[in-house]
Amino acid sequence: MGDSLPEPTGLDFAGIWHSRYRYESSSRNEEHFCEHYVVFKQHGTRLIGENVPAVNDSILKLDLTVRGTTATGTWSERTSPTGYYRGREYHGAIQLVIDSTGKAMSGRWVGVDREFNVNSDSWELQWVDAASASSHRDYRLRA
Following CA atoms 131, 136, 140, 143 in sequence, which dihedral angle do they give, to the nearest 10 degrees? Predict the structure, then answer.
């Protein structure tokens, strides 16, 4: 009980977050990281996020529910049509621990790869900016 984090009640998660997750490419036998800037909109305890258009042309979506110090939900990504995975769609579950300030989350994702293996690895989100029209332009095509 003494080591538990305070409940992040009343925190505002809306804004632009830097997203970074790790995965193993079984076909290339390599470790990779994928990064996006994600715009989260908050509806009560629900966070709906989609990436700002990126150089890699992939589309990432997150649907999370905040309960206490955790955010749990689903993710989906359509990879770049011109990239290694050629527009393939992936999806799965995600669970993150929210830091006491509400400006960082870290945890794990789980999903099925193109060879139908269940994989899991790390995922981190870091708040970077309020979500205004001008800030969207600032992060466009960065990741």
Answer: -10
